[in-house]
Design a protein that fits this description.
The protein is α/β, with parallel strands linked by helices. It is built from five helices and 17 strands. The protein has two domains: 116 residues, Roll (2,3-Dihydroxybiphenyl 1,2-Dioxygenase, domain 1), CATH 3.10.180.10; 147 residues, 2,3-Dihydroxybiphenyl 1,2-Dioxygenase, domain 1.
Length: 297
């Protein structure tokens, strides 16, 4: 298997103009648990091993403030810091103790297209469980890019990710056996496309989606099955306009997986997924997928 220095996507930080409303949505509707509050941040956990998967911070607007990756070793943390600095990233925090209650050592950079990335080693984890109809961990983060090939090269050449598939509009990148932890979407401006939360199985995607609908939040796209990654999906929009996804059954890959190009990821007219039964993506979902910027951007 490829020697990945980054072992997993751990968490994301979202800025919200209504932190109380966001906490209510992600706990009461989406299925996360409030695990800590430190200063002006709230930390929310899924049911799996990660201490937290979502950080919420009061902000003037909805924005993606940070993506956090777990790193395999202290040596890899030091190596990645040197590589990101040499690649022209803005160093926001040099290696040192992490601010989050999960602890560990970390550094924080802003990559050339504007997203803030944190790399952590030695952070606290918990004894997770699988709970039906509730998120277990993050599955992937999808980033809009006006220069998708340059950002894809950055993730591969500097951060050690591997390209698994390339459709007409998206690049899929892995850092472990999951088909993708990061997806890059071609867009007119850089920003957040959506955040995906891994559910235990297809049944949990279906039932979990039904519970979200019961609480007044319609499905923006799905339920369907994607092409690259073969994962089941259901997209929603949170109250601040952030697109979030329930997903399951993500394809597991190894070094023998053959990268497929745009010519091999083409649907028949009118179809947007493998099954061919998902309704078209809502206009509200399409708009939201290109409306959330990066902090400071």
């Amino acid at each position: 298997m490829t020697d990945f220095p980054v072992s997993a996507l751990r968490s994301v930080e979202i800025g919200t103009p209504d932190i109380a409303g966001s906490v209510d949505f992600y706990t009461r509707v989406w299925g996360l648990d409030l695990v800590d509050e430190v200063g002006d941040k709230v930390f929310l956990a899924a049911t799996g091993d990660d201490f937290h998967v979502l950080e919420l911070k009061q902000s003037d607007r909805a924005e993606l403030r940070k993506i956090t990756f777990r790193v395999r070793s202290a040596e890899d943390l030091a190596s990645l810091f040197a590589k990101t600095a040499a690649a022209g990233c803005t160093v926001m925090r040099e290696p040192g103790p992490a601010d989050a209650p999960s602890g560990g050592e970390r550094f924080v950079i802003r990559e050339p297209q504007g997203s803030v990335l944190e790399f952590v080693h030695g952070d606290q984890q918990k004894q997770g469980t699988i709970v039906a109809n509730r998120p277990n961990r993050l599955a992937h983060v999808n980033i809009n890019s006006a220069q998708i090939e340059a950002l894809s090269n950055f993730y591969q050449d500097v951060l050690g990710f591997r390209l698994t598939d390339r459709s007409k509009l998206m690049a899929f990148l892995c850092c472990n056996n999951d088909h993708h932890a990061v997806v890059l979407a071609e867009a007119p401006a850089n920003g957040l496309n959506h955040i995906a939360f891994l559910m235990p199985d297809l049944e949990s995607v279906m039932r979990g989606s039904g519970l979200v609908v019961d609480k007044g939040h319609p499905i923006g796209w799905g339920v369907g099955r994607h092409g690259p990654g073969d994962n089941v999906f259901a997209y929603f929009i949170d109250p601040q306009g952030v697109v979030i996804e329930y997903t399951a059954e993500v394809l597991q890959v190894d070094d023998g997986y053959r990268v497929r190009g745009p010519a091999e990821w083409v649907w028949p007219p009118g179809r947007t997924d493998h099954w061919g039964i998902a309704p078209p993506k809502s206009d509200a979902c399409k708009k939201a997928q290109i409306s959330i910027g990066f902090s400071g951007g």
